[in-house]
Specification:
By secondary structure, this protein is mainly α. It contains four helices and no strands. The longest helix has 29 residues. It is extended.
Length: about 80
């Protein structure tokens, strides 16, 4: 969690999870991801996501083109 949230955000999350609602959310959060209704909704969003993918890939390519190129592989790095 600390890799994704700063100290203030972690404190906010902890404060929420310390409430009755937060405890209930925490208790149910993992099960929500495999709930049939949630799975159907996620699957239903795939066609729209796939339509958006070409534009997203172009934007990602344009943004990452500014980054330095990775080092060339050598026999020593291939062995790792």
């Amino acid at each position: 969690m600390a890799h994704r949230f700063d100290e203030r955000q972690l404190a906010d999350i902890n404060a929420f999870l310390a409430t009755d609602t937060g405890r209930e959310f925490g208790r149910q959060s993992m099960a929500m991801y495999v709930d049939p209704d949630v799975m159907r909704a996620m699957m239903g969003s795939f066609p729209e996501m796939m339509k958006a993918m070409p534009d997203a890939m172009q934007r990602i390519e344009a943004e990452t083109s500014k980054l330095p190129k990775p080092p060339k592989k050598t026999a020593a790095t291939d062995a790792k």
